[in-house]
Design a protein that fits this description.
This protein is mainly α. It has three helices and no strands.
Length: 81
Amino acid sequence: MMSRDRVEYSLNWKIDPDADSYDEVANEIEESQEWLRKEFEEKGYVYVPDGYEEEIDRWNTEAYESAYLKVFGCLPPEDDD
């Protein structure tokens, strides 16, 4: 179950509407926010599907890579983990 703080945080995400490179990610976030809002309003809690945290990580990685590409003209270097 997603905590109330996480629900509120997720519902308040904003993407700069002038950043064309964020269109796809922004659309996914809006869809996710709509689903979260509906679930929370109907039930008072939100069970998230398997893979939800991985999806959030993917969105964050895509946003980071897109911004890095826009600023530096290339993708960020690979981590040496």
